[in-house]
Each structure stands twice: as structure tokens, then as C-alpha cells.
Amino acid sequence: MQLTTGFAVCLSLFSGVFASLTTGVQANIVSEAELMHWLKTTDAELTFVGEPIPGINAPEGLAARAAETTKVIYCSTRSLNVCGGRCTVYNGGPACLNAPNTNCLSATHNVAFCGAKGCNYPCTEYAHCESPMDDGFCFTPYTNAILVGNY
To answer: Which UniProt keywords apply (predicted)?
Structure first.
């Protein structure tokens, strides 16, 4: 009986740990709606790269070409817990983005931000952001490249 009770307690603890790890992994990923809201309300200086974003840098009714793209916003300035300054907005598929002077970023899928040029090591996953900021951004000092995967 004690063995069964002990096993049940251990199983319960492991389930809680794995559940918290699973939910924590995607904690920083922003939704399309959250990203669109930020784009429509920011006073940051925006530069667009990749596919047009309907309602932002293309007519509202324009249909998106790709069924599943990743949107990444990466900016030069962190002020307290807010990301801004000069920002680049990428909308597209897999790519290695040249991103010198990036201090914070946000994305609709998991991406990796890298300290070396060319998406070389060391890289950190956005989903495992150690310094979350407002509006789903992550503080990413010393970032020089961003690796966008295939989703």
C-alpha cells in the first residue's frame, strides 16, 4: 500500500513538473492578433522585410500568399521593459536574418536569436526567453542574427 501511495505521489509530482515545462516553453510566443495590435499602435520606426502584411503595409483585404509564415519584430532599443526604437518586421518562411544591434524581439513562432553572424552558435530559443518584456518581447542583447525555422 505504501509503495502504491509513494508511486502515486511521485507520478503526481512528475506530471506537475512536465506540465509546467510544457506550458512555459511557449510562454513568450505571441499570437497573430497580439503582434498586429502592437504594429498598429507602436510609435517605433518600422522597416518591413519579406511578404506584405495585410492591414499594416498592404491593403487590408489582400490575401496572404503563404499559408503559414512567421512574423518577427526585432528592435534596437530597450527602454525599461518596452521594446522600440528602430524595428524591422519580417514576414516569411525559413531564413537567417541579419540583425545587428538587436536588443529585443517578438515572434509568432519559435525562432533562435544568435550572437554570431550567419545564425551560428551561440543561439538561444525565443520560447526560452530568460528576460521577458512587455507585449511578448524578449530582451536579446548582443543579437546579430535570427534563425527562422520551417513551421
So the answer is: Signal
39 φ/ψ angles, rounded to the nearest 5 degrees: -60, -40
Cell of 130: 530568460
* Plot region of 8 (φ>0 → left; ψ -120 to 50 → alpha; else → beta): alpha
Burial letters 52-82, b for 16+ CB under 10 A, else e: ebeebeeeeeeeeeeeebbbbbbbbebeeeb
Transcribe 93-105 into DSSP letters.
SSEEEEEEEEEEE
At 11-69, the pLDDT tens digits run 343 333 333 333 444 457 999 999 999 999 999 999 999 999 999 998 887 666 555 79
On whether the CB atoms of residues 108 and 32 are closer than 8 A, the answer is yes
Can you read off the three cell numbers belonging to residue 113? 536569436
**Stated pTM of the model:** 0.80
